[in-house]
Write a structure and sequence with these properties.
Layout lengths: L1 H8 L26 E2 L5 E3 L4 H22 L2 H8 L15 H17 L3 H17 L8 H6 L21 H19 L3 H16 L14 H12 L2 H12 L25 H18 L2 H17 L31 H18 L2 H15 L17 E2 L13 H9 L8 E4 L2 E4 L5 E7 L2 E9 L6 E8 L3 E8 L14 E3 L8 E4 L2 E2 L4 E2 L2 E8 L3 E6 L4 E6 L9 E6 L2 E6 L11 E3 L6 E5 L6 E13 L5 E12 L11 E2 L2 E2 L7 H11 L1
Parallel strand pairs: 5-9
Antiparallel strand pairs: 1-4, 2-6, 3-23, 4-5, 6-7, 7-8, 8-15, 9-14, 10-16, 11-12, 11-15, 13-14, 16-17, 17-18, 17-24, 18-22, 18-23, 19-21, 20-21, 21-22
The structure holds zinc ion.
The site of zinc ion has 7 residues, from helix 13 and helix 15.
Length: about 675
């Protein structure tokens, strides 16, 4: 690994003139989300769960993602387009530029908490190539820059012609804008921002009402334009983001959510990543323009997903054909798509919904997705990736080093370093504690800095200790989130529910005294005059719970899923006697014990119970015997080789898969 990193970062910086100036005055926006996140740069995560992953993302995932971008020609495309090298467009897809942008975005976030001069210099080199590849008027799309029009069936005979179908010209640019803003904020350098603004100005000159009236086939530019607007205060970027939303539909395809005007959409259809990026963009534009019709539309769509179309892991997208949503309640487990990117997009969107409305239900989806369907997308080693994240496997699934279409690994690189930014949020007079993980944070509140120290072993243990240190005593309200899983409501609606409600309630102490509380929309609100050294202790009971699915979800019938705290569990082959899973049935009456195993999968809490193992006899009869069953957190499956796995565990004989009996029978023979 070290050698590989040296190869990547050892590239000699070409002589270049980069317009580098220190951070200068930029106008700020006025209206925005009523609740503001506390940025990840103000939250130092120190726990055993996320901190090692953030470090590994920096040390392993980002370097190999850049290396793969070099090996697969993604970087070379910029060099060829910029005239530094000869050759043809040398990667596969017209959207391959976007991966480089996303990894630069991830590296920029990562640099802010893990300074790394070599990495920063490498980014300058890449940005130099990108700048050379950009045409005089701001156009940048390496496949057309190199190969010309009609060189790929997706790109059309001239610029922007197939932007609403598959060209991905605007999708690439959205990722570039996000990356350029991140890089500017991380380094204070304007080299990438300059390229991005030149590009956005071109798009603004060419697209709009009475100009090219077309929308992106893959949404993303809306989010990027809003970031440019927030940074520069230039109204035209916000107007352009809104234009790209309003110009969609009717009459387009459901696949990319252009079948109706966005304000008339009421159900989740089509490609899940496109959809969730679009809903995120709608939320952003709604916050900045106070557009109620936008909020109503994404609220209706949210209910459609959460009540009928989301997996217990927080994954979205049930079918591979459209990489997206299926009809209500169709949630197959083994063929579940649950693309890593759609989990990330779903977190973006739910975070924005919370910032709009302050409702804890959005954070329940965010947390569920974060700890299950999202983080399963990367291996414990940080160098293998899932594209789909299925909920059952015969062993045909295995994380890969990279993909021809590499959206998921590059998305992982940019998402992981930003996770500390989801922990806290604030308004004037309120501090929201939304996620629990050990950290030291600084929250600007009124005219002072409130330092918060959180000690906890979450997600393995529900005890959370907070020390609050304002500079001067001051009255404000602490909002402590009580997660849905601790309120007997794993998610809003009736798609999933506990087999038995948990009686034990969360306990609260303030400065060592047991304190009564009333839950107010999922939060404990603590309003008092806080002084330095004040202590809050919250204990969230973490019993093992059995989750059932709505009767219309065929694949989950006669089965339950195990959950403890925010983590969904699974049965995986190496932990079971005989190395098989599909021949097992759990005994729901049996006790479920749990213990932390520090030597397993970098340290995980396992759940143990008993059940029955079925196998075929030589005479084709059925044999059963009692067995021990061990469950591990879903997100760490597939780190020990290929084999059987299931999240939904049979509790009735009819749910046990006959396929496994045959496998067993073959093994006997
Ligand atoms: Zn992806």
């Amino acid at each position: 690994m070290k050698k590989r990193m040296q190869n990547i970062f050892g590239i000699i910086l070409p002589v270049m003139i980069i317009w580098i100036t220190a951070c200068s005055e930029m106008p700020k926006t006025t209206g925005d989300y009523p609740i503001q996140p506390v940025p990840f740069t103000s939250v130092a995560v120190k726990d055993k769960f996320w901190a090692p992953r953030i470090k590994r993302n920096h040390e392993v995932t980002i370097p190999i993602a850049f290396e793969q971008s070099e090996v697969t020609g993604r970087v070379k495309n910029f060099k060829i387009a910029g005239g530094l090298e000869e050759g043809e467009f040398c990667s596969i897809y017209p959207f391959d530029d976007s991966d480089v942008f996303k990894i630069i975005e991830g590296a920029s976030y990562s640099l802010q908490t893990l300074p790394d001069p070599k990495l920063e210099a490498y980014l300058d080199t890449l940005i130099y190539y990108i700048g050379l590849a950009q045409e005089e008027d701001g156009y940048l799309f390496t496949i057309r820059n190199i190969m010309g029009d009609d060189s790929h069936p997706w790109i059309g005979s001239k610029r922007w012609e197939k932007t609403h179908i598959l060209s991905h010209e605007l999708y690439n640019l959205g990722h570039m804008y996000e990356a350029a803003v991140a890089h500017y904020q991380a380094t204070g350098k304007r080299n990438f921002l300059h390229i991005a603004l030149k590009s956005a100005d071109l798009v603004d000159r060419e697209f709009g009402w009475d100009k090219i009236e077309n929308y992106p086939g893959h949404q993303e530019i809306e989010i990027g334009l809003v970031k440019l607007y927030r940074l520069t205060g230039e109204q035209k970027y916000l107007d352009l983001a809104k234009f790209f939303l309003d110009v969609r539909g009717p009459g387009g395809e459901e696949y990319n959510q252009a079948h109706k005007k966005v304000t008339e959409q009421d159900s989740a259809v089509g490609h899940a990543v496109r959809a969730a990026y679009m809903y995120s963009g709608i939320a952003d534009v709604a916050a900045l323009t106070n557009d109620k019709a936008y909020v109503d539309a994404i609220s209706r769509i949210w209910e459609d997903i959460v009540y009928r179309k989301i997996y217990i892991t927080g994954g979205i997208g049930a079918t591979g054909g459209n990489e997206g949503f299926a009809e209500p309640y169709r949630l197959p487990n083994m063929s579940a798509y649950c693309e890593t990117c759609s989990s990330i997009a779903n977190i973006f969107w739910n975070h924005r919904m919370f910032l709009h409305q302050g409702d804890v239900k959005y954070l329940d989806i965010l947390e569920r997705t974060l700890y299950n369907g999202m983080i399963s997308g990367v291996s414990l080693s940080g160098d293998r990736f899932f594209y789909p994240n299925p909920l059952a496997s015969y062993g045909q699934h295995e994380r890969q080093e990279w993909f021809g279409c590499a959206c998921c690994p590059s998305n992982i690189t940019r998402f992981i370093p930003s996770i500390p930014g989801y922990i806290y949020a604030k308004t004037a007079g309120r501090i929201y504690v939304n996620l629990y993980t050990e950290n030291d944070a600084e929250v600007e509140m009124n005219d002072q800095t409130v330092r918060i120290q959180m000690k906890t072993d979450y997600p393995w243990d529900g005890k959370i200790s907070l020390t609050i240190n304002p500079e001067q005593p001051e009255r404000f309200t602490f909002f402590l989130r009580i997660p849905g899983w601790a309120r007997n409501q794993p998610v809003s609606g009736d798609l999933y529910y506990y087999m038995q409600d948990v009686e034990e309630k969360p306990q609260l102490q303030v400065n060592g005294k047991n304190t009564n509380y009333k839950l107010n929309e999922g939060y404990i609100r603590l309003n008092r005059k806080w002084k330095a050294g004040d202590q809050v202790e919250l204990i969230l009971p973490m019993p093992v719970t059995k989750v059932l699915a709505h009767e219309k979800v065929e694949d989950d019938q006669d089965r339950f899923a195990l959950q403890r705290g925010p983590l969904v569990y699974c049965l995986e082959w190496p932990d079971q006697e005989g190395g098989k899973v599909f021949n097992l049935m759990a005994d729901t009456e049996a006790s479920f014990t749990t213990e932390f195993n520090p030597g397993l999968l970098q340290g995980v809490q396992v759940i143990k119970t008993t059940g029955i193992s079925y196998s075929k006899t030589l005479e084709n009869g059925l044999e059963s015997k009692p067995v021990k069953i061990t469950a591990i957190p879903y997100h760490v499956w597939a780190n020990r080789g290929q084999g059987e796995m299931t999240v939904w565990i049979p509790m009735e004989e009819k749910a046990v898969r006959p396929f496994s009996f045959q496998v067993n029978s073959a093994a006997i023979n």
